[in-house]
Amino acid sequence: xxxxxxxxxxxxxxxxxxxxxxxxxxxxxxxxxxxxxxxxxxxxxxxxxxxxxxxxxxxxxxxxxxxxxxxxxxxxxxxxxxxxxxxxxxxxxxxxxxxxxxxxxxxxxxxxxxxxxxxxxxxxxxxxxxxxxxxxxxxxxxxxxxxxxxxxxxxxxxxxxxxxxxxxxxxxxxxxxxxxxxxxxxxxxxxxxxxxxxxxxxxxxxxxxxxxxxxxxxxxxxxxxxxxxxxxxxxxxxxxxxxxxxxxxxxxxxxxxxxxxxxxxxxxxxxxxxxxxxxxxxxxxxxxxxxxxxxxxxxxxxxxxxxxxxxxxxxxxxxxxxxxxxxxxxxxxxx
Length: 335
Fold this sequence. Notes:
It comes from Rhizobium loti. Keywords: Oxidoreductase. Pfam families: Aldo_ket_red. One of its GO terms (molecular function) is oxidoreductase activity. The chain is α/β, with parallel strands linked by helices. The protein has one domain (about 5-210, about 260-300): TIM Barrel. The chain has twelve helices and eleven strands. The chain has helices spanning about 35-45, 60-70, 100-115, 135-150, 160-170, 190-200, 235-245, 250-255, 260-275, 290-295, 305-315, 325-330; strands spanning about 5, 15, 20, 50-55, 80-85, 85-90, 90-100, 120-125, 150-155, 175-180, 200-205. The strands form three sheets. The protein has a seven-stranded parallel β-sheet, with helices on one face. Strand 8, helix 4 (about 135-150) and strand 9 form a beta-alpha-beta unit. The protein starts with a strand and ends in a 5-residue tail after the last helix. The relative contact order is 0.15.
């Protein structure tokens, strides 16, 4: 089992067909286990899953440091994506504060390079649009960093159409990272057609609906303190019950094919690339080798037209109950 490669956007970036979201190795989904996380990163390289996604705010800082340690002697085998754009004060994320001032972008990039123990960032995303800094200034600064060799490609995360277009006009955007899955299809009406037009790839995060589409979920209150899902509206109360029912088709198709529900969700995403005419590379997150191997194996699962249509219809936006974020977090999404 070894993953193939996938073009990501029209600027020349090539990555593994499935990536690895590394955030959960340091925060958000229960206690960290550094030894298993490093073993998972090494196993990912063995499997050809070499597109690794991190950010300065994960931890903050400790996720990039973890990758720096894990990738010693292996740097040239991977594609590293990281992000800037949140305000971090005394080692903690400052609420909804954002900071994409050009001088701050440069400070973050230098610090990320040091933590990652590398001389270049393969894909640098603005983590969230900063309403106080023109996107042209952001794109121009990243373009300068590309010219200096510190960054190879430019990306945006959760950006809306207007800012995507404005940024792309200054420095080409290779990829948009946004939540997109069977569970969350907000990009289909407007964003995805714009990505096709501009030649920008899509990197869906949370492709398993933060675990909901993997089939083994509990109510919000049953997760430990510090676990992101405790505050996820879709895991709470009546939303939870409705969403378990909505996800039943994923479980049924998986059972009929003899595979895992999460693998069906990833296979659906990969199939959407040719359908929409864009490059799609999902980045399911995990900190365990077992789940990594399951996710990578999804690349070999093919859904027929009947299965795809059944999934499309079962999880239309009106059948998923509850907002994807709480109000504070949604306020940072540029829509």
